[in-house]
Design a protein that fits this description.
The chain is an all-alpha fold. Helices cover 74% and strands 0% of the residues.
Amino acid sequence: MSALAPRLFRVAFGLGGERDLAEDAAQEALVALVGRWRRHGPPESAEAFAFAVLRRRLLRARWRRLLLHPLDTTREPAAPRGVEAEVGATLELARVRRALAQLSTGDREILLLVAAGELDEASTAALLGRSRSAIRMRLHRARSRLRRLLGVQPTGESR
């Protein structure tokens, strides 16, 4: 389970964009997994269970953020984050983040689940309630769209 925590965080950070939110959501997903395990035994796929909880937590956080946005604008701006802010400001990271932001939520989610979350096709299919072939196709299309936005040619093709 210790290997699952960083993967949950990476996906949460990629989807939520905020470090604190990502840490909280990842931790809540792990707590839910442990609670499920203790009460009912291990789930069929611990990864799929944890990522499903993570998705629900992030969705709730987004709704909360939308509802509380008018209140948040009245507060003082947050202090700079230091080293993380500097790293996040690098040109390449900014370029990739902009490209990811231009993708649909579904494309962004599947790319992050597979790349940052390190889920295989079977776990991703179980999590999203789709067939493995549908996941393969969605992943292929999402990668193609991201490559096009980044101006990168697939391996083996020339411009």
